[in-house]
Design goal:
123 residues; mainly beta; 10 strands
Length: 123
């Protein structure tokens, strides 16, 4: 199972850092992705990173504001979120996949989802 943490309430323009860790496995040979889901909406892709090599990808809506990174020693993936806006409010989930780069944004290819962490941005 994956554990997502770090969410909270922040004012618009503020920052948060989310963490995704795995208690019973390593991320080796996986791609770790962050998705978010707002009430009434579908789960949408935010960012992903290949554990081996560090290739990353971002949704256009967060590119330049969010940064995904990894800490090999801690077996943890981070999502640094800056310049947060009200539209970033959602439950954020992390998951893993082994699909090719072109499919990283498709949530149905991910598994071992964490429980999600709530991010609320007040305007």
């Amino acid at each position: 199972q994956l554990q997502a943490s770090g969410g909270g309430l922040v004012q618009a323009g503020g920052s948060l850092r989310l963490s995704c860790s795995a208690s019973e496995r390593t991320f080796s040979n996986y791609v770790v992705g962050w998705f978010r889901q707002a009430p009434g909406l579908e789960r949408e892709f935010v960012a992903a990173i290949r554990w081996s090599g560090g290739t990353t990808d971002y949704a256009d809506s967060v590119r330049g504001r969010f940064t995904i990174s990894k800490d090999i020693a801690k077996n943890t993936v981070y999502l640094q979120m800056n310049s947060l806006a009200a539209e970033d409010t959602a439950v954020y989930y992390c998951g893993v996949t082994r699909v090719v780069y072109s499919s990283w944004s498709k949530s149905n290819f991910y598994y071992y989802w964490g429980q999600g962490t709530q991010v609320t941005v007040s305007s």
